[in-house]
Amino acid sequence: FPEGHRATDGTDMDTIDKGCAFIAVRANAPIVPMYIMPHAFKLGGRWKIAVGDPIYPEEVAARCPAKKPVDAVNAALADEMMTLREQARSL
């Protein structure tokens, strides 16, 4: 969870913490962003989930040489999460 926790109270997305980006950069592991609509945690309810393309830390860092790698990956993740939120809302 790039926010550092799950929001089960129906609130929208919080700010994206850098922990996910830090781990991905250190491990050179891709991040597969996913957005689960709030209120999706009701048992028996329909879940709306949007899944994005993997974010590869090396590629993001190479495209943004002026930024620290963790900051560049975190910004790319935040942008993708906003896009996925809009996609999930339209499901």
Task: Report on this structure.
It is a single chain. The chain is built from three helices and two strands; from the N terminus they run αββαα. It is mainly alpha-helical and about 90 residues long. Strands 1-2 form a two-stranded antiparallel sheet. Helix 2 crosses helix 3. The protein is elongated. The two termini are about 20 Å apart. The relative contact order is 0.22. The model has no long low-confidence stretch (mean pLDDT about 85).
Defining traits:
single chain, 91 residues, mainly alpha, two-stranded antiparallel sheet, 3 helices, 41% helix
Total count of strands: 2
Q: In DSSP terms, counting alpha (H) and pi (I) runs of 4 or more, how many helices?
A: 3
Give the helix level as a range of percent: 40-55%
Distance between the termini: 21 Å
- Give the CA-based shape: elongated
Work out the radius of gyration: 14 Å
Low-confidence sequence ranges: none
Structural class computed from helices and strand pairing: mainly alpha
SSE string, helices as H and strands as E: HEEHH
Strand residue content: 5-15%
Largest sheet: 2 strands, antiparallel
Mean pLDDT: 86
Walk across the major sheet and give the strand order: 1-2
